From TrEMBL:
InterPro entries xref list: MoCF_Sase_C (IPR005302), MOSC_domain (IPR052716), Pyrv_Knase-like_insert_dom_sf (IPR011037)
Full protein name: Molybdenum cofactor biosysynthesis protein
Pfam families: MOSC
One GO molecular-function entry: pyridoxal phosphate binding
Domain MOSC: 21-170
UniProt-listed PANTHER family: METAL-SULFUR CLUSTER BIOSYNTHESIS PROTEINS YUAD-RELATED, MOSC DOMAIN-CONTAINING PROTEIN
Length: 182
């Protein structure tokens, strides 16, 4: 993993909106998520998951996307910026999608998140920009679904996260466990 990984941007929204507002900083709360964000909570907060079973643990407390994805989709004619796909933390210099399940990301020297899995892109992405969903989810040559809309995680350690902070990666012991949708 790159030692040059940094937080490029942070975002949040108190409402259940698709895009989130870019902010000067956010605060992560252990076991809950992003302070003031609509998805804050120990149990599921995404509307569809609350409707299915509101007692399930919230494995989607923090949404992270690599800024390189925005660069890639720009090459296909799409203009997407930080927070616009609903992420809380936009990173640069870190291949989030290649991480093992359980990887811990530490921001600066305090806040940390354990990666739980892949974001499952939904049709709302095409509502944001028609055709964008096909850029962030498709079938690979082997027929398997490839999801590229970032990763989800749970907050392990409370603390601030701000643009420019280094992102430190701690890979779990044992074999690499591919990320699955959560």
């Amino acid at each position: 993993m790159s030692v040059d990984a940094v937080v490029e941007s942070v975002s949040g929204s108190a409402g259940h909106t698709f895009s989130k507002d870019v902010l000067p900083g956010i605060r992560l709360l252990a076991g809950l998520g992003v302070e003031g964000d609509a998805h804050l909570g120990a149990t599921v907060q995404h509307r569809s998951r609350v409707a299915a079973d509101p007692t399930r643990p919230n494995l989607r407390q923090v949404h992270l996307i690599h800024a390189e994805l925005f660069d890639e989709v720009a090459g296909a004619g799409f203009s997407v910026g930080p927070g616009e796909l609903g992420e809380n933390v936009t990173t640069r210099g870190l291949d989030l999608l290649a991480l093992s399940t359980g990887t811990v990301l530490r921001f600066g020297d305090r806040a940390s998140v354990r990666v739980t899995g892949l974001r499952n892109p939904c049709l709302q992405i095409d509502g944001f920009s028609e055709g964008l969903l096909g850029q962030v989810v498709h079938r690979g040559e082997d027929g398997a679904v490839v999801r590229r809309a970032g990763v989800m995680g749970v907050v392990l350690t409370s603390g601030p996260v701000e643009p420019g902070m280094p992102v430190h990666v701690r890979v779990p012991e044992g074999p690499h466990v591919l990320l699955e949708r959560v």
